[in-house]
# Entry
Amino acid sequence: MAGAVVGYFLARARTRREEVRPPGPTVAELLERLVRSSNNGIVVLNRFGDMVLHNPRAYELGLVKVNQADPRARKAAEQVVETDEALEIDLSPLEARGRQPEAVLGQVRPLGDGFTVVEAVDHSEAIRLEAVRRDFVANVSHELKTPVGAIALLTEAVLDAAEDVAEVRRFGGKILRESTRLGQLVTELIALSRLQGAERLPDLNVVEVDAVVREALGRTTLSAESADIRITTDNPSGLLIEGDRTLLVTALSNLLENAVAYSPAGSPVSISRRLADGMVEIAVTDRGIGIAEDEQQRVFERFYRADKARSRATGGTGLGLAIVKHVAANHGGSVGLWSRQGTGSTFTLRIPAHVSPEPATEPARAAKTSPAPRQEKTPERTQRLVVTGQDSPDHGGNL
# Structure
């Protein structure tokens, strides 16, 4: 009888303890989740170098291969067990694997009782950024050195030919061209430094696409006439976008100047615009030399030139398309490229369209500034532009 009573009370106490236990995961389960979700590769080794615990990130960083820890990590773990001191090691892949992690730094720490933990951190992006910075400084130094050196040499030539008026004028013209190129390079560097890394523009104004096209055409008229190239456009669209008008005109002007510079004399350059999926697309198409497929991903890099000889002849800085890319990104848009060697190229600037907060009041506002018949034709014209953009080889057909 006494044994039954004792058993009853023991069972009741066990039930109470289970009822008191709070619901949810245990501390050990939370620790396991923490290890598995960590952005760093984590491996726990015993005194024999065998894995006790690891997370998926360790596989991605190459810390674990074929269910075994990297031999470098195992060797370092043996040393840490002997010295009981943390150790840093290089766990970077021994073979290049493209965009895979290429700079991995590991830290091995003792856990006691012969156990060690290896934590690997991916520093690849920092290494890439540092390489880009070094390239940028080297490129800027080279690009600035070229016109400065040319101006110095031409100035010496002017001094030597001071008595020859014709030579002075000839060298003076060259000095003017080099100084103009230098000023343009500095201006574009300043513009790029302001754009790069900036977030989406906080103060956006409603901008007329047609006004941006007209102003960009005005800036490019002189160079187009000098190159014997006629720039054609489609009909006014009436489309609106949100952004900075000055930056948008600069971006479109750069695309037009690029098309003119890389097109043979007498070839056409065209501009088309349309609305697609809430984005306004402004496409610049040329019938120039085209861009090789393996170079199309690099043309938006700073100072990269697909045809270096032609760039030197036209005085290009190599920053125009980089500025276009950053202007598009700062407006929440993008820039696309279609190109084929010997056929030409199409650069498409995509910017989010302006959406009126009060569409019901828009017709009444428009009626004050435009006659009623014209307002009735506007939707039809806009729709026709969309269809034309999809079918025309100067626009969507090439994209």
Observations:
- Confidence is low (pLDDT under 50) at residues 308-314, 359-399.
- The first strand starts at residue 41 and ends at 45.
- Residues 29-122 form a domain with the Beta-Lactamase fold (CATH 3.30.450.20).
- Residues 124-160 form the longest helix (37 residues).
